[in-house]
Amino acid sequence: MKKNAANSISVREKIGYGFGDFACNLVYASISSYLLFFYTDVFGIASSAAAFMFFIVRIIDAVSDPIVGIIIDKTNTKYGKFRPFLLYGAIPFAILAILCFTTPSLHGGAKLLYAYATYIALSVCYTLVNVPYGALTSAMTQDQHESVSITTFRTFLANIGQVIVAFCVPLLADTFSKSMSLSRSWQLTMLIIGSTGGILLLICFKSTKERVKVPSSHQKIKFSDIFEQFRVNRPLVVLAIFFLVIYGVKSIVSATGVYYVTYYVGKANLVKWYSAIGTFPALIIIPFIPWLSRKLSKKQLMTISIITDIVGMVGLFILPKTWIVPIFISRGIASVGNGMISAYMWALIPETVEYGEWKTNKRLGGMIYAVIGFFFKCGNALGGMIPGIVLAASGYVAHKSQTPSALHGILITTAIIPICLYAVAIFCMRFYNLDKDTYSKISAELQKRNALELQKEGI
Predict the structure, then answer these.
(1) Residue 437 burial (CB < 10 Å; 0-12/13-18/19+)?
(2) Which listed site, 224, 392, 412, 455, has its alpha carbon 20 to 30 Å from 233?
(3) What is the pTM of this model?
(4) Range of the domain at 178
(5) Where in or outside the cell is it found (predicted)?
(6) In total, how many domains does the chain have?
(7) Of 28-32, 141-145, 321-325, 428-432, which range is least confident?
(8) Is the pLDDT of residue 342 over 80?
(9) What pLDDT shows up at residue 20?
(10) Which residues contact 367 (CB under 8 A, 6 or more apart)?
């Protein structure tokens, strides 16, 4: 599909848009990587209780996504349809991130209730910010290559956020703990992370523009329209399942990394480096994603990405725990594969929005992103629950030397379970039927059709 001026996005705007995912990942990566560890080893919640809480909170969060989606699609303000949520959600997002890592003087059920309340509130706030943020891509351009480019900037900066979290969060918490309590050090660390995230969301709001115009008849949305999408929008169904599986893997890998290095490898001081190497190599490959997307089919690119990640995980499983350098190399290989997956999978969502509008004359930008959010959060729920269950079943006890059974449980959760899930993801992508040529034809036809309708409306 050829670019045109209306669809062209400046590098400055792409960077500004990417700051949104930078912000979201500062908090999301902190939650994924450290909240379970914080609950079990700092706040003092049993691993089984924490695992069940992760499942419940994320299911509640996922159920809220369709509600948020319909709210977004019915929103129409002077700031646009999606950007207002970035403006008004930034400060609550920052405050709730800090509260999640705060340890008030509570005991028993009150402590668990506080954890539930703050985690649910942050998750819902994240949905109110992240769903419209993701859907904003489809309102910025209808050019396929520009969408991939925007997503590449987004993913690159998201990975920068993950690198900062991976390295700085444990470093800051450890540094602060030398002059204050461990619980206070974690709170101060998240004060820095959360505040930075809030500021970046405001920059994202200021930097971006919604320029895709849609006929008014395409914006008359009702909740039942999403069921019609599931009936006619096959790419959406396949992509939703794919997100479920991939984010299940991401959640498992994020949650178990600290246990793998602390207890299996036996080098707690290397946690920050292990986390950083799990993100940094991806920064090298992500800028090449737009080029790769032109050379490879979608299925080829996704399959190669997943297999690369699997190769790295096999290394983590088979290498002796004393082989630190090869373990870190394996972690880096997995990072490259994971970065390729992340950089490209989000670029496919605008295609499903366009395809759905082409089939039904309804543009469900917010709702479709909410559906994807529902599925990837269900994946997070399962992925967040699995490590806690395996740790509890294998006999894990915080702050103790772990039994061989517990160490084996950590190893299985780190590598084998994610590899099995990746096999499901590869099979799933076989059914994605929206190739480049088909999408180009559909998008061109839709733009021509919409232009005629907008002309009739005098827009």
Answers:
(1) exposed
(2) 455
(3) 0.74
(4) 11-207+226-448
(5) Cell membrane
(6) 1
(7) 141-145
(8) no
(9) 94
(10) 66, 69, 70, 72, 73, 221, 225, 226, 229
